[in-house]
């Protein structure tokens, strides 16, 4: 029996690109809200930290938070909708970059306060905008061996964030790491997994959002959620432009922030390519350039509305992967919700009341999905007769160093630490350079059999090698033939009884 279909859905032609699909207002808002909940903790953390470092009072910190939500929403809309030269037109959520927090705090303490931080953001973003054409030309240096590595490290580097959220988020709190916090995160994780298994597509795709709601209700029932502060403060407030005064430009602050901008450009380029892999759409240098210009353009706008550097949020890339919702208009709806949250602080206070462990439980699935997407990309890489194995191994190792040992680069110059303290940028830089060295520069390419890593990439096709069942203890492969422990050749026959001689792929040697 034919299934019924809504007239508008039946008449609507299939989009040329997966990301151009429009799901309607209702679904777009629901999925967009899921994006907002996924990144809400990350977008409000920088203004909280920088505001406290600047000695701002509660009202001023509230203004910073609202401003960052407002600017993040505008930046998300620009990135997903796109205008000429600005916006990748991909489902990428923008927000205040956490990579800039340490540098912003240093500027606030060592310069002219928060005004110097705003000036550094404005000037460095302008410089970043000027150099985006250079970054737009690196697409050829991002083959699957690079993109798969970076995507994997993006997911792995976010796991400490999920673990911290699951433990309570505030390391100074008395209940940080308590069993109740961890169990609440575990409960939310279980709800995500159960709802993801639902046979109703709407429930399955909204599993993250519904699990956060269920987790919050469960926390409220046992006294771990507090909504008493939702009614305090104004309901509506427009972020006041230049509320802290005009930006102050200091050379040292601009230079240090420009280094951060280089990191942000690297991470955003990686996120653009990552979400392109997940959505299964074409990513070219123009699209990367438009996305990076949206990044820098919104970062230039941010200081005028009391905001900081903007970048794509990796955790939302994971949400795209886990839900399978590829529409960029869903992210546009999320951007609109962020703008509303920036204008209606009361709504922001409702979202802020969600217990951090609940976000941690959902984050485990989200961030793990990003890593899994990277592993899936790496599975497509050819490892036979090349050095791709050592590229992946070294790059993943470099990306995990800041995660395993956060103080590893503390004795190095500040500019070096700023770049390599991020596992994502560390992995990206190392993977790009090693790919150029081993795969682009001709004289550096390894000949077959000349490296243990080249040999490690070779494999035996077990489906075709029926003869492998006849091997005995002491047999070995030499120059395309099998010999026994005495050096006598062992005759090989395939499944049809025909003689077989091993090729380079089976033997690990050239003829």
Automatic annotation (TrEMBL):
Membrane-traversing stretches: 37-55, 61-78, 116-138, 145-166, 178-196, 208-227, 247-265, 329-348, 354-375, 387-409, 415-438
GO MF terms held by the record: xanthine transmembrane transporter activity
Membrane topology: Multi-pass membrane protein
A Gene Ontology cellular-component term: plasma membrane
Subcellular location: Cell membrane
Signal peptide range: none
InterPro entries, A to Z: NCS2 (IPR006043), UacT-like (IPR017588), Xan_ur_permease (IPR006042)
Keywords for the protein's UniProt record, in alphabetical order: Cell membrane, Membrane, Transmembrane, Transmembrane helix, Transport
Stated family: Belongs to the nucleobase:cation symporter-2 (NCS2) (TC 2.A.40) family.
Name by which UniProt lists this protein: Putative uric acid permease
